[in-house]
Predict the structure of GNAT family N-acetyltransferase.
Amino acid sequence: MEPRVTTAPVIDLRRYGHTDLPGIRQTLLDVHAIAYFERRHEEFVQRFPWFVEQWGGREGFACVVAYADGEPIGSTYGAPGESGHEWWREYLSEEPADPSTFSVSELMLKPQWRGQSLGERLHGELLADRPEALAVLTVDTKRPRLQAMYEGWGYRKIGERQPFPDSPLYAVMLLDRKCAA
């Protein structure tokens, strides 16, 4: 019997912007459908296409899709916050020297690709060339392991919020990119 040779798939991270949304929209929806399959019946999860349009419609929208041997396996996206309207400020007692913020809206991986540091790679690629001093994201408070993962990446919890009546209660997490660099 010959030894079985397995090769690791080639992981390719591709960057996209606002004008690319029509071409990647279905990819984002397809990855989301698999990543959130267990929660597919939740009304909030079912509104994902609306969120894609809202975020993708912003001029500074940025997205990174991970492909394994050409097959999409995960993605992350977000957009710059509107100057002077940073919703997370209410959780801070002190004004940051530079409040420019990139809001990370989504980070998702198909289940079989989790736990392999791909989320961190996607996140790093999304923020790699961003000029903003801060990054903000929210994570379901019922997911403490995810919160701990983001803390390991330099984020800190600054508060909690429930942005929609049917959304989970989220931990608001802020990353000072100048300190993390």
